Amino acid sequence: MLSVHEAIRIICEQTPTLPAEKIPLTEARGRVLAEDIIADTDLPPFDRALMDGYAVRAADTQNAPVRLRIVGEAAAGSGWRGTLDAGEAVRIMTGAPVPAGADSVQQIERTREGENGETIEIERATSPAQFIASRASEITSGSIVLRRGETTNAAMTAALASFGYANVSVGARPRATILATGSELVPVEETPGADKIRDSNSPSLAAYAELAGARVRRLPFAIDDPALLQKKIEESLQHTDVLVLSGGVSMGAYDFTKTALREIGAEIFFEQVSLRPGKPTVFARLGRTLIFGLPGNPVSVSVTFNLFARTALRRMQGANDPMLAEERAVLAHEVKGAVERTSYLPAQLRTDDEGRLLAEPLRWGGSSDLTAFARTTALIIVPQDVKTLAEKTVVRIVRLPG
């Protein structure tokens, strides 16, 4: 049986990167860069004042208090173009260019202007470069600001704008189609009758796929009929990059997904993973369309989607980090593993009084316990062949998107 690591390796090998597209800067948040972002100017582009006050020559202030003659004013967007000589000062505002000849700024709180506004008393000595951000101290023109494959966030938007990227080259958003299977399902808006349950997998998978950057199409669920299921899968493969099925992948009499995939000629790469929950996970491909057959239980669906299908969707966009990033946390309580499989157990993250990241295992009743899983923010990884992890053990975790 494949390990989780080996399953992810196979998925990455079979996943193509979609072509890049140009989009407006205003739409770039959350997208994967398809180009390096290059600084087209030094930043700051000039020596910039960090305080409101007076630009001076530090040598003139060493015997402070001293009185200097005010010869001009520099404001943000409107610098003073002269050259400062000995005994002179320029009134300056935060963000303004420091005039030639000046090498320091004294903040206004340490000065006292004369009544006529022509002189300024510097009450304390300054030092060279005081309250000045030197030209190119943040970045030099031609340097790489952000790298291809990074996912943009709101903070990066300022950098894109500062260097003139009104339009940004990003990885195209993959098209994901969601299809839940099972004769027991009824739509969310209906009250389930005897032996029926509402379809919770479709909205859950759609939400996770959108978080992964996909454009999502949800199809009406398919009942457990081999011919109808095959037809529905064939129809759903049109105009999609990734098809995500839930249910029908185990060994039961009414589990028809793998049979249907074989009938339509899909190449199945694996159909079981050494994973708890989520052992009966299927990965296949037909043409350029990737197909994931996930277990029907809602916890298994969430775990397997985020480990496997999310990885494919992120890789299609060219992400440098398509997989959920592993972190370390301290285990708040003992957890039990499964000797034959690697476990990904639901947990909540919190910080203790010492600032340590704690993983609090959630009490849950198995892979169908969606109520307990609703509070999950991370998964605790318990390696195969480990029966128990004790309280206060440092464990590997992955955070769930959301």
Oligomer designation:
single chain
Q: How many helical stretches? A: 7
- Main β sheet profile: 6 strands, mixed
Mean residue pLDDT: 94
Sheet with most strands: strand arrangement: 7-4-6-5-9-8
The CATH architecture designation of the largest domain is 3-Layer(aba) Sandwich
The shape, in one word, is elongated
Which range best describes the helical content: under 10%, 10-25%, 25-40%, 40-55%, 55-70% or over 70%?
10-25%
Number of DSSP strands? 28
Q: What is the terminal separation in angstroms?
A: 30 Å
Structural class by helix and strand composition: alpha/beta
In the CATH hierarchy, the third-tier topology of the largest domain is known as Molybdenum Cofactor Biosythetic Enzyme, Chain A
CATH top-level class of the largest domain: Alpha Beta
- Kindly give the count of domains: 4
Low-confidence stretches: none
Beta-strand content estimate: 25-35%
- CATH H level of the largest domain: which superfamily? MoaB/Mog-like domain
From the alpha carbons, calculate the radius of gyration and give it in angstroms: 30 Å
How is this structure best described in words?
The protein is α/β, with parallel strands linked by helices and 402 residues long. The protein has 4 domains: 4-18 and 172-316, MoaB/Mog-like domain (Molybdenum Cofactor Biosythetic Enzyme, Chain A, 3-Layer(aba) Sandwich); 36-43 and 138-171, no CATH class; 48-133, Molybdopterin biosynthesis moeA protein, domain 3 (Beta Complex), CATH 2.170.190; 326-399, Beta-clip. Helices cover 18% and strands 30% of the residues. The chain has 7 helices and 28 strands. The strands form 8 sheets. It has a 6-stranded mixed beta sheet with strand order 7-4-6-5-9-8, with no helix packed on it. A 6-stranded mixed beta sheet has the order 16-13-17-21-20-18, sandwiched between helices. The chain has a 5-stranded mixed barrel with strand order 22-25-24-26-28. A hairpin with a 2-residue loop joins β20 and β21 (289-294). α1 packs across α6 (298-316) and α3 packs parallel to α6 (298-316). The longest helix is centred in the C-terminal third of the chain and has 19 residues, at 298-316.
